[in-house]
Design goal:
CATH class of one domain: Alpha Beta
Helix content: 25-40%
Distance between the termini: 16 Å
Shape: globular
Radius of gyration: 26 Å
CATH superfamily of one domain: Dimethylsulfoxide Reductase, domain 2
Structural class: alpha/beta
CATH topology of one domain: Dimethylsulfoxide Reductase, domain 2
Strand order of the largest sheet: 7-6-17-16-15-8-9
Length: 734
């Protein structure tokens, strides 16, 4: 067992749980929920309240139904352009977050040294006083920059505001270096813009869709999955490249079971075919391209025959799929993906995806990658933030010249090393760093260098077990939040508003951030008294009706052009002002101006490359305690090639443990013996195998891929952590 699984997690006595807090008694949550549901004062009848979902970052518009004062169900808002009136399985099951009996109920302060897990429940005022005192001490000794925030999702908006007002520039998110950061860098280097969030993919109008490592149907991004279904129904050609026969592969005209880590080889071979056979969009490239002749010379050696022994994809299949893309251009979309931190050359891999789209003329074109739009909602007129005396601490040697945001693992390294200056306090919001950062041992080591760690969470996740202060947040159905102003194919604004009350003394993130700011003497940064006042100011300043927004949940703006042929300016904010087939800025920094292929390390004898991904009913490691979603998927499985399983004498449903190259052993996990995966790798859904004992529903259910990711390869362009470089063996249960 690893160090974390041996820890005694949150040993809070029944007496401690029953302590009075500022909002009233915080007894066991199950009793509170039952009492509230049975309360005679509950309003009778049915109420429908619009909001937007928070089960994932997509933030679909939704309508919740409350029956006789009790949360009943949640559905898609038909006015919302993202959900189009339908939620995914996770979103529909979101009501379970309110009824989760494992929820934190009161602020907690650690009363002993870290690792003892001895806690006392306190009032909110006591918690804020404790935090503020220690923050001011850290500021006096080390400077305000020595405080860092790790956050995920829109809920971190107000905490970012408070900490910027305090004076720190160290705001980071694992979703950058551990997820989409390499993709955004690759696209930015090519087009001068990234792929967006949600992605600017015009799937519904694509006549050919290429999914290379993108798992639509498992990675349940609602709009894209709906549009994928529309494209399939309309007869679009689907090309899926994946070591695993995914749900999307079942819809494909061509399925290419590629060797893991060889995507760049295939992408180069595809581009070779398009260029040498003159199948690319010549007019588009001539008009918009920079450095095409140099690019053409660079890719000349990468024939399908060269790519075959690297990828395992036969030359005639490479040519056939390249020609299929060309026949459908410019309405061929090579999906940019989202999670892209795989092998350490990921920004160049994403740049190759961007270049393939450029050859097909898909950027700015119908069926390709459109130009997203958003409503212009004025910001609130806050005072300017103090200028930090020191810059972000994530990259002291300036090793990563093309990073677009701070590097989460770089902040962790600065915490350990003290370079370029000490990081002495972490705030953690909306992310379980034990599962979202690779190499848990380094995270634990970094925490030992802190003078203060504050975790804002809904449930007692693994990271709360290491905190000095734990603050219980209300779930998204119990609170207001920042306005939803996604860039998308049409402009709109959405509002999140409370549907039901929090069952105990949980508080919304905006209230937590504001009260802490007041305790720190930063009241000037919160001139508004309530979140409704703040939201109404912004909406009315945009000339919209706040009352109408609260009633409908969504207000949509007038349609705007999103394609070049509709009037979108044909502009590329790159150094050349064009699509950079050959990148001088990469060359000048000592990097390849055109992507090059590096052969990945093969698994040692008897070992398998560890791959991981998503399930349609869970989000990261955040939703396993949700009773509805847990009922749909209680534990994960490890996919093992059927031939390999037969040699080991394993059948589906039998349990094994995985042991990685550094000797770390997983919890036991069920085998899924299947022909749907290559024999050189195994696969698991991310987010399971929780070792926090107070997560009673999911404790030790399945295995954690994160604990097996003890090695990474760091992307030299932007500092992303390639995590698909770990190998495991199968350890049979005695």
């Amino acid at each position: 067992m690893d160090a974390l699984s041996r820890r005694r997690f949150l040993k809070i006595s029944t007496a401690t749980l029953g302590l009075a807090t500022a909002g009233g008694a915080a007894g066991p949550l199950a009793r509170r929920l039952a009492a509230r549901a049975a309360g005679s004062a509950a309003p009778q009848g049915i109420r429908r309240i619009p909001t937007y979902c928070s089960i994932c970052f997509w933030k679909c518009g939704a309508v919740a139904t409350v029956k006789d004062g009790r949360l009943w169900k949640i559905e898609g808002n038909p006015d919302d352009p993202l959900s189009r009136g339908r939620l995914c399985p996770r979103g529909t099951g979101g009501v379970g977050a309110h009824f989760d009996t494992d929820r934190l109920t009161a602020p907690l302060i650690r009363r002993t040294t870290r690792g003892q897990d001895e806690w006392t429940a306190v009032t909110w005022d006591e918690a804020f006083a404790y935090i503020a005192e220690r923050m001011q001490t850290i500021k006096a000794k080390y400077g305000p920059e020595s405080v860092a925030l790790f956050s995920h999702g829109i809920g971190g908006t107000f905490l970012k505001h408070t900490l910027q007002a305090f004076g720190t520039p160290n705001l980071t998110a694992p979703s950058g270096a551990q997820c989409r950061g390499p993709r955004d860098t690759g696209f930015n280097l090519t087009f001068g813009e990234d792929a967006g969030s949600p992605e600017r993919t015009d799937i519904r109008n694509a006549t050919c869709l290429v999914l290379i490592g993108s798992h639509l149907g498992e990675n349940m991004h609602n709009t894209q999955v709906q549009e994928f279904a529309d494209a399939v129904a309309a007869g679009a050609s689907i090309i899926v490249v994946d070591p695993r026969f995914s749900i999307a592969a079942g819809k494909a005209k061509y399925y290419l079971p590629i060797k893991p880590g060889t995507d760049i080889a295939l992408l180069l071979a595809w581009m070779h075919v398009l260029v040498t056979e003159e199948l690319y969009d010549t007019a588009y490239v001539e008009k918009h391209g920079f450095g095409f002749d140099a690019f053409k010379a660079e890719i000349a050696p990468y024939t399908p025959e060269w790519a075959y022994p690297e990828t395992g994809i036969e030359p005639e299949v490479i040519r056939a799929t390249a020609r299929e893309m060309a026949r459908n251009k410019p309405s061929t979309l090579v999906h940019p993906g989202r999670h892209s931190a795989w092998y350490g050359d990921d920004a160049q891999r994403s740049r190759a995806v961007a270049l393939l789209n450029a050859l097909l003329g898909s950027w700015g074109r119908r069926g390709g990658l459109y130009a997203p739009v958003a409503l212009d909602i004025p910001a609130y007129p806050y005072p300017p933030y103090p200028k930090p005396a020191r810059g972000v601490a994530d990259d002291p040697d300036d090793k990563y010249p093309f990073k677009l945001e701070s590097i989460s693992t770089g902040i962790r390294e600065a915490t350990i090393s003290g370079r370029p200056y000490p990081i002495k306090s972490w705030f953690v919001y909306g992310t379980n760093l034990m599962e979202s950062l690779p190499n848990q041992a380094e995270t634990i080591e970094a925490i030992q260098h802190l003078d203060l760690m504050v975790v804002v969470d809904v449930v007692p996740s693994e990271i709360t077990g290491w905190a000095d202060v734990v603050l219980p947040e209300s779930v998204y159905l119990e609170r207001h939040d920042e306005l939803n102003l996604n860039w998308f194919r049409e402009p709109y604004v959405g509002i999140r508003q409370p549907v039901v009350e929090a069952p105990a003394d949980q508080k919304p993130n905006w209230w937590i951030a504001r009260e802490l700011a007041l305790k720190l003497g930063l009241g000037a940064y919160y001139p508004w008294k309530t979140i409704e006042e703040y939201l109404a100011y912004r909406v009315t300043k945009a000339g919209l009706s706040f009352d109408e927004l609260t009633q409908k949940g969504i207000l949509r703006g007038a349609p705007q052009p999103i394609y070049f042929d509709q009037g979108v300016p044909e502009e590329f904010p790159t150094p050349s002002g064009k699509i950079e087939f050959y990148s001088l800025q990469l060359r000048d920094k000592g990097h390849d101006p055109v992507p090059k292929y590096t052969r990945p390390e093969d698994p040692p004898p008897g070992a398998f490359r560890l791959l991981f991904g998503r399930a349609p009913v869970h989000t990261f490691s955040r939703t396993q305690t949700n009773p509805i979603l847990d009922d749909m998927m209680h534990e994960n499985e490890v996919w093992v090639n059927a031939g390999v399983a037969a040699r080991y004498g394993l059948a589906s449903g039998t349990y094994v443990r995985l042991k990685n190259q550094d000797g770390v052993v997983s919890n036991r996990v069920k085998v899924k013996a299947t022909e749907r995966i290559r024999p050189d790798c195994v696969y698991m859904v991310h987010g399971f195998g929780h070792t926090a004992r107070r997560l009673t529903r999911t404790y030790l259910a399945g295995a954690s891929d994160s604990r097996l990711i003890t090695r990474v390869k760091v992307d030299p362009l932007m500092g992303g952590t390639g995590m698909n470089v770990n190998f495991v063996t199968l350890e049979l249960e005695a």
